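During the practical work, I worked with a single protein chain and the tokens that describe its fold, as given directly below.
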Amino acid sequence: MGIILMILIILLAVIVIANIKIVPQAHTYIIERFGGYYATWNVGLHFKVPFIDRIAKKVNMKEHVADFPPQPVITKDNVTMQIDTVIYYQITDPKLFAYGVERPMMAIENLTATTLRNIIGDLELDETLTSRDMVNTKMRSILDEATDPWGIKINRVELKNIMPPAEIQDAMERQMKAERERRESILRAEGEKKSAILLAEGEKESAILKAEAKKQAAIREAEGQAEAIIAVQSAVAEGIKKINDATPSKAYLTLKSLESFEKAADGKATKIIIPSEIQGLAGLATSVAELVKNDMGDSSVPEKPENGKRTADDVKGNTPSDDTDSPKKFKVRG
């Protein structure tokens, strides 16, 4: 009797221990009692009534990723292509997820395929390739609304690959190559144009700078010459002023005139105009020379006529010229 009691106690302890459940983090358990929904266990320690309660479903509350295989779709311009999608979803209501739909993942996959065909059917090929964000947004909105009664929230929908037919891909590659060659030609032409403009501007600026340098050099040279002339003339004026202040004698002035005449008669000029003062000196020298000549020729002069008068021929040429003081012009042969 004691053995049977001990066996019953051990069996009861095993049953109690087996019905103690611990729900881990980010999980929930759906509990049924007598075949109907009874409770939802969250994280923690729970006790299940033996033979009455049962765990109907264990639900993972983490975010899930579903990668669906490529689906054939037809665009508005009758191009058939393959598109595969990736869906990020999360279970928000474990009870609805357990009792809302049979095989929810298959339901989401089929709903994704039909929604994708409806959206792509309104777009042409080029729009489909360039409107991924718009397609993703529309699909997420439609799927989220459709799966809400199932206790599922669609967080994101992404078009993973868009695969058009091989001939369309070849045509697109040729078009892309032609477009890139066109852009290359345009860029090369623009570069050559800018290069020519820059070269022309450089030559223009160089010519302007050279002309400006020549102008400045000419101005500096003219200023230097002007300053030199002013300095020379100032020195000459200062010398004349000092001479005037010293009240030079007439002999000094005559001597300076002769020095100037000497420089003028250096053989480079064909005509020389002699001042009246120098001509007077020259006339005086000529008169003296004539007198000396006459004195030397007195011994050969015939006796006076008996009437005591000299004839005009005797005195012809012995009288000094009366116009010695008038200016004369001499030709000097160089």
Remarks:
- The longest strand covers residues 80-91.
- Residues 19-60 form one domain.
